[in-house]
Write a structure and sequence with these properties.
By secondary structure, the chain is α/β, with parallel strands linked by helices. It has a single domain, classed as Spore Coat Polysaccharide Biosynthesis Protein SpsA, Chain A (Alpha-Beta Complex). Helix 1 runs parallel beside helix 2, helix 5 packs parallel to helix 7 and helix 5 runs parallel beside helix 9. It is globular and about 45 Å long.
């Protein structure tokens, strides 16, 4: 039977990390939390909830945390890896759906899309920013994904061993798409629902950060 590991990158998420871990443990064999240099009790609460915890001494950004998490999941013997956000936005049943889709054996990578089958309950401002992210990702990497910035994604061990993340921050979501294209990985999207609260909405990218992310992606493409 395959070993399923969920990776949760977290930075100052003591309010929500416990529930995120407990939910994830219902659908995975192991949960690995990467505490990205938090100054609160994120690590302590995650460990008490049942997660294995890796802690960065300093904040390395989302890309750095995901890179550490995927490497850690492979060391734990994962046959399939799913990433989830720590802010309570993702449902454990959607992580299970990602694992189950991978288990069908015809794809290497799954992206959970908030935009499929009427599942998209995204606020209008975020929906517009999401479209821009999708469009930029397509222009740079020639792959259309309906929710390129989704934090819920799954990969087989085969895919996880081949993906090389160089981005340290929010541009990592588009970098996953680049790696899918470059490594010729088979991709499927599945519909997911996102849980939006005032807290989870406060964790999103600002307009200024979005512009910085776009510029980093363009520079990365020019340098490749």
């Amino acid at each position: 039977m395959e070993k399923r590991v969920i990776v949760i990158p977290a930075y100052n998420e003591e309010k929500t990390i416990g529930d995120a871990v407990r939910g994830a443990l219902h659908v995975a064999d192991r949960v690995l939390v990467v505490d990205d240099g938090s100054s609160d009790r994120t690590s302590e609460i995650a460990a008490a909830a049942g997660a294995a915890v890796v802690r960065h001494a300093v904040n390395r950004g989302l890309g750095g945390a995901l890179g550490t998490g995927i490497e850690g999941a492979l060391r734990l013997g994962a046959d399939a890896v799913v990433t989830m956000d720590a802010d309570g936005q993702h449902r454990a049943e959607d992580a299970k759906a990602a694992f189950d889709r991978l288990a069908e054996g015809d794809v290497d990578f799954v992206i959970g899309s908030r935009m499929l089958e009427g599942k998209g309950n995204m606020p209008a401002r975020r929906r517009f920013a999401q479209f821009l992210g999708n469009a930029l990702t397509f222009v740079l990497f020639r792959k259309w994904v309906s929710d390129s910035q989704s934090g819920l994604r799954g990969m087989t061990r085969h895919a996880a061993e081949r993906i090389r993340l160089r981005s340290s921050r929010m541009e990592v979501s588009s970098e996953f798409v680049k790696e899918i294209v470059d490594k010729r990985l088979r991709l499927a999207e599945i519909p997911i629902e996102a849980i939006y609260t005032d807290y989870s909405l406060s964790k999103g990218q600002s307009f200024a950060v979005g512009i910085q992310t776009a510029l980093k992606l363009i520079l990365r493409r020019l340098l490749d």
